[in-house]
């Protein structure tokens, strides 16, 4: 139990990078970008192929992320220069990437089980002393994680990306990107090239998604052509769950919430899969239900609070009138 | 400063919906001229603003700013030189961003946007100083989301954002029309103040004839896509609403009862 929850946290912090990318397109730019399902695999597949062909894992990962950036830029160009509807631009790029990805990969699955990946490098640098200290905090647990290296290093990487994103969104360019999602007419009247900002923004978003894909592939030991199916919904689920649970007052708060949402999503899925009658193929259904719940619940709670408040006010007024009448 | 040569623009040409929105417009504004623009609905006032700002490209004709032909310069490039305030108070600001972030975006208008923080200590002081001139207390709410401000406050902020980089040209399109009378008066006053403070070359469209007479040093009357009346200086100072209506009737030679309702 504990050990599988640990696994959920571990992959949660890796998928959180993808969720931050989805946050950038969906929330910041208000651009429902479905490229994600394809660009996640682009990152995974290209990185996998490069690693299998002997490239250093860090270089391979960066190139994989860059390929995602390019894919996102193309979606942005389709939308801005080609004037294609946002949703459709993403869908077109997504299916185009399916073919492109298989070209890059050569086969549907690229295995990295016997290769040196970023994670095998991290583990070999890691001092097992830290593990025993951390594990000693869990006295009584029947099994303890074999290594904390991945969780801690990836946690640091993800938090670093979060801070970079926070910083970026407050720069002059970042402010203009946010305004493009908020009031395009206004920021154009303030001399911002909104087309360029959308292209860059969607590019960065998919760069993060592809980076996450590259890391997920190395973590799992393989890249698969179909590993991106439904990724956009998982990203959205993380964003929506995070916002619902942790709030969205400031940029720094939302990006943290998105990371939290990504981890919670993994935890919920892990727990759900331990329920006997649920099959792994039910995952997508569970995801859909989760998103629906995260969307509907806050509004329903809000409506109930409002109703309660009104009823209380009404009751107070009635009481007051009653006492006035009797006086 | 601003020159317009023979600009014409027709919407939906060769269809039943054809509309000649601008017909051979010529005008020349000197630095610091403040023109109020009146005219009935559909006269082409907004279209003229949009042609100057670059949101619309005219079918024929040229737009020159500082003797440079900008007619094919995209809107976002032209807006380095042009400040704008729209009629809709929601249009000029980004609601989910804070007051200081909105100001920072306006501050970057005539510069190249870079990867440096948009808001810093120095700029905050600068923003605060400018906000104080509005007397709305906004200087104490730098971190408030603009979506929480009232229409009047947002319009005042838009006006500040449009002007504080001292653009070559300021375009105001009925920017007080959506406000209640007291707010409209306040925005009108602020407009007069900033225009004179920065000596801005300004075109201001208004539905309010009195406002058109009180403000500015030149007046255009537009009808059917043309500037039919152009008056400035002392002549404008002595003009009354009755003169304007008479003038309109003389030029167009027709009953203006219906227009009176719109113009008044
Ligand atoms: N985008 C457009 N497409 C078609 N017709 C338009 C468009 N914009 C304005 N028009 C028409 O052009 C004419 C001038 O409009 P406009 O400049 O908005 O007038 P004003 O601002 O003086 O009231 C009107 O008849 C209007 O219906
Ligand atoms: Mg108009």
Notes on the protein architecture:
The complex is a heterodimer of chains A (327) and B (264). A two-stranded antiparallel sheet of chain A has the order 1-2. Chain A folds into two domains: 2-274, Orthogonal Bundle (ABC transporter involved in vitamin B12 uptake, BtuC), CATH 1.10.3470; 282-327. The model of chain A has no long low-confidence stretch (mean pLDDT 93). Chain A is 77% helix and 2% strand. With 327 residues, chain A is mainly α. In chain A, helix 8 packs across helix 10. With 264 residues, chain B is of the alpha/beta class. Chain B has a domain at 28-93 and 151-263: 3-Layer(aba) Sandwich (Rossmann fold). Chain B is 36% helix and 23% strand. Chain B contains ten helices and ten strands. Classes of the chains: A mainly alpha (327), B alpha/beta (264). Chain A binds chain B through residues 167-168, 170-176, 178-179, 182-183, 185-194, and chain B through 53, 74-77, 79-80, 82, 84, 86, 90-97, 101, 104-106, 108-110, 113-119, 161.
Any key phrases for this structure?
heterodimer, A: 327 residues, mainly alpha, ABC transporter involved in vitamin B12 uptake, BtuC, 2 domains, two-stranded antiparallel sheet, 13 helices, 2 strands, 77% helix, 2% strand, B: 264 residues, alpha/beta, Rossmann fold, six-stranded mixed beta sheet, four-stranded antiparallel beta sheet, 10 strands, binds adenosine-5'-diphosphate, binds magnesium ion, ABC transporter permease (chain A), transmembrane helix (chain A)
CATH class value of the domain at 28-93 and 151-263 in chain B: Alpha Beta
Number of domains in the coordinates of chain A?
2
CATH architecture of the domain at 28-93 and 151-263 in chain B: 3-Layer(aba) Sandwich
Major β-sheet annotation of chain A: 2 strands, antiparallel
Instruction: Kindly provide the radius of gyration of chain B, computed on alpha-carbon positions and rounded to a whole number of angstroms.
Output: 19 Å
Q: Largest beta sheet of chain B, briefly?
A: 6 strands, mixed
Mean pLDDT of chain B: 92
Helix and strand composition category of chain A: mainly alpha
Protein name (chain B): ABC transporter ATP-binding protein
Subcellular location (chain B): Cell membrane
Membrane topology (chain B): Peripheral membrane protein
Domain ABC transporter (chain B): 2-249
């Amino acid at each position: 139990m504990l050990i599988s929850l640990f696994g959920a946290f571990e992959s949660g912090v890796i998928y959180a990078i993808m969720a931050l990318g989805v946050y950038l397109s969906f929330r910041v730019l208000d651009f429902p970008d479905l490229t994600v399902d394809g660009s996640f695999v682009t990152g995974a597949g290209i990185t996998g192929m490069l690693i299998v062909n002997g490239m250093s894992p860090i270089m391979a990962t960066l190139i994989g992320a860059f390929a995602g950036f390019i894919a996102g830029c193309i979606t942005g160009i389709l939308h801005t220069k080609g004037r294609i509807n946002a949703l459709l631009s993403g869908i077109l790029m997504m299916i185009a990437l399916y073919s492109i990805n298989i070209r890059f990969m050569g086969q549907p699955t690229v295995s990295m089980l016997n290769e040196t990946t970023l994670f095998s490098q991290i583990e070999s640098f890691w001092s097992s002393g830290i593990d025993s200290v951390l594990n000693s905090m869990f006295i009584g647990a029947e099994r303890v994680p074999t290594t904390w290296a991945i969780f801690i290093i990836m946690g640091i990487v993800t938090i670093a990306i979060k801070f970079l994103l926070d910083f970026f969104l407050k720069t002059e360019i970042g402010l203009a990107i946010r305004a493009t999602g908020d009031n395009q007419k206004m920021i154009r009247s303030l001399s911002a090239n909104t087309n360029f900002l959308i292209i860059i923004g969607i590019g960065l978003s998919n760069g993060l998604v592809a980076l996450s894909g590259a890391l997920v592939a190395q973590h799992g030991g393989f890249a698969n052509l179909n590993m991106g199916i439904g990724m956009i919904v998982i990203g959205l689920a993380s964003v929506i769950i995070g916002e619902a649970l942790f709030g969205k007052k400031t940029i720094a708060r939302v990006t943290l919430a998105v990371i939290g949402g990504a981890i919670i999503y993994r935890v919920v899925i892990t727990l759900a899969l331990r329920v006997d009658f649920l099959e792994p193929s039910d995952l997508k259904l569970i995801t859909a239900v989760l998103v629906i719940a995260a969307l509907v619940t806050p509004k329903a709670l809000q409506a109930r609070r409002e109703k309660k408040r009104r009823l209380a006010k009404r009751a107070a007024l009635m009481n007051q009138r009653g006492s006035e009448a009797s006086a | 400063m601003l020159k317009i040569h023979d600009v014409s623009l027709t919407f939906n040409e060769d269809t039943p919906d054809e509309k000649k929105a601008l017909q051979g417009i010529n005008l020349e504004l000197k630095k610091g001229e403040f023109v109020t623009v009146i005219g009935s609905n559909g006269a082409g006032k907004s279209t003229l603003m949009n042609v100057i700002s670059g949101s619309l490209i005219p079918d024929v004709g040229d737009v020159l700013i500082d003797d440079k032909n900008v007619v094919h310069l995209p809107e976002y490039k032209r807006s380095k030189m042009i400040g704008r305030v729209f009629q809709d108070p929601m249009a000029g600001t980004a609601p989910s961003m804070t007051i200081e972030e909105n100001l920072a975006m306006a501050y970057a208008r005539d510069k190249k946007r870079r990867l440096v923080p948009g808001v810093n200590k120095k700029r905050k002081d600068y923003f605060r100083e400018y906000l104080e001139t509005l007397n709305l207390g906004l200087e104490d709410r730098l971190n408030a989301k603009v979506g929480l401000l009232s229409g009047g406050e947002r319009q005042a902020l838009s006006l500040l954002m449009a002007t504080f980089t001292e653009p070559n040209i300021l375009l105001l399109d009925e920017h007080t029309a959506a406000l209640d009378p007291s707010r409209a008066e306040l925005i009108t006053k602020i407009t007069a103040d900033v225009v004179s403070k920065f000596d801005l070359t300004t075109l201001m469209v208004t539905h309010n004839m009195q406002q058109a007479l009180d403000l500015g040093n030149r007046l255009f009357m537009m009808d059917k896509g043309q500037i039919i009346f152009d008056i400035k200086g002392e002549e404008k100072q002595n003009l009354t609403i009755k003169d304007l209506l008479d003038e309109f009737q003389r030029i167009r030679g027709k009953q203006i009862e219906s227009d009176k309702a719109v113009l008044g």
